[in-house]
Amino acid sequence: MDSTGSRAEGTFSVDSTVRGASARGFAAFRREWESQLGGGFRMPAFSPATTGDFRVRSCGTRMRDVAIINLHGVSAVEAAGSSHCAEDLVRMHVVRRGTLRVGEVREHADGTVSAGRFLIRFFKRAPRYELVRHTTVKFLFLPASTLTPLLGNRMISGSTDSAEMRLLLAHTNLVHENASDLGPAGVQAARDALVELVKAVALRQFDDVEPLLAPALALAAKELADTHLTEPGLSTAMLARELNVSMRTLQRAFAATGEPVTTYIRRRRLEQARLALTSPTGPPDISDLAARWQFADSSHFIRTFKKHYGQTPTEYTRSTRTADR
């Protein structure tokens, strides 16, 4: 497989869920896959039922000898495996919503991977798989030569809630967002970090001082913080504990973003409070708003809000209503 590309060697995005797009959706998906990922990553043979009603949102990125495909199927998706074409890839399936059934996985009952779970295994040949309707899955294609010494013939499965999986998923999000802007060194670094994080998932531990992983660690912490903004226990210590790193390591990762952990938490709480002030049903009571977003009291909330936005909450609400009129 060619590893000499100077950029992320291919990226694509296809949405055939919009009205009228499903008829040509599969053709667009095939065209994008073959032009952007083709060569090292063979597109599976999909069933006629799938190609006839192909309502999916999908994006993909290839970085040398690895590829990431995100797919959300509004319709069901079924792909036949290959019994004659050697593939020699480690595949990782991460299901965020719905259900994925993977063929040739006897150790895993019927091969079902449910929402919030992942499966990693070396496949000599491409497996069959089925996605039930409204399934969201991430496929990772990885070099067997790098990972089979660690995996052997084992299948590894687990929850997406582990610290290692949080970092891996955050890293894949960063890759999709920034792939088209990466130069040769960036492509190599992103590829290497992806492989290291898959190894970390397999080993259930990661090197928390590895500089390559710092961007993924910061993003994983932000994503985790965003789900706990209303909780009084949200703190640097809580995030570090959930991500299985030291507070110092987490603070170093955030330092590279130019915003300390506590500043990020306060900013996101203020953003959510500001949105609440523009609710169509009318702004909530200031005391209730302060309590929900974990400010000490209404006075503290008002001072902090004005320092950040240049207006008190009441002034902000009045100004937005005037602008709407």
UniProtKB/TrEMBL annotation:
What GO molecular function annotation could you give as one example from this UniProt entry? DNA-binding transcription factor activity
User: What residues does the HTH araC/xylS-type domain cover?
Assistant: 219-319
| Pfam families associated with the record | HTH_18
Q: Does the keyword Aminoacyl-tRNA synthetase apply?
A: no
Q: Which SUPFAM superfamilies match?
A: Homeodomain-like
Keyword flag DNA-binding? yes
What keyword terms does UniProt attach to this protein?
A: DNA-binding, Transcription, Transcription regulation
Protein name per the record: AraC-like DNA-binding protein
